[in-house]
Write a structure and sequence with these properties.
The protein is mainly beta and 117 residues long. It is 6% helix and 43% strand. It has 1 helix and 10 strands; from the N terminus they run E-E-E-E-E-E-H-E-E-E-E.
Amino acid sequence: MTSHITSHVLDSSVGLAAAGVRIRLRTLDGRELAQAVTDVDGRVTDLGPEALPAGSYELVFETGAYFAERGVATFYPHITVAFTVASAPSTAGDGDPPHCHVPLLLSPFAYSTYRGT
């Protein structure tokens, strides 16, 4: 099963996938809905349910623990990315909300994210 929310984390400081990053899916009031850990390819495909109601959510990437395991100092103990799940039908025409892919490019002192496909 692929969940409604997926992610891919790349460590741009070494040019590799970031395996072992814990990601938490939460509501904006902090209620945890799901959590997962990136695989050897830096991906999470099982983060939460197959569908989420329209609304705003956040992903919390536990980057401090990831860098600590590698003996690397980091400025960010975690990175929180807030996003909105739209209620619009998917482009597949099946009436389901669109899939949300939230990639993260990280280094010890910077990060970038975008709406992926």
